[in-house]
Design brief:
Mean pLDDT: 90
Radius of gyration: 13 Å
Structural class: alpha+beta
Strand content: 25-35%
Shape: globular
Number of strands: 5
């Protein structure tokens, strides 16, 4: 979404989640490491209880989390919805990654 490829989304998602011990976060970080993706330096990482997390990477605040987090941030639009629904219908857990302008992609976990 919005010019970000799969590797970008996974790399950013892993950076955000690198400060967490949540099982989904650990799975995202492990997949980024398995693919040999660069590790971004994060600042101001914070958990958003029950919804996700956010962190500053290279001066931009990014977030990763549930559909509830996306709606709370005011980005409930069709741009990510088709992908999200497709992953969920396959029984996958979809973690949406975004920035101040909205979702940039989805990390799907089996």
């Amino acid at each position: 979404l919005r010019g970000h490829d799969e590797a970008d989304v996974l790399r950013i998602g892993a950076a955000i989640e690198s400060q967490s011990n949540h099982p989904l976060a650990l799975a995202i970080v492990a997949e980024a490491e398995r693919r040999g993706l660069a590790k971004d330096v994060v600042a101001g990482a914070a958990s958003i209880s029950g919804k996700g997390a956010e962190a500053r990477i290279d001066g931009t605040v990014y977030w990763a989390g549930s559909e509830r987090l996306v709606k709370e941030k005011g980005f409930d639009d069709a741009l990510y919805r088709v992908e999200f629904d497709a992953f969920e219908s396959k029984g996958m857990t979809a973690v949406i990654v975004g920035d101040g302008a909205g979702p940039i992609g989805i990390v799907a976990l089996a």
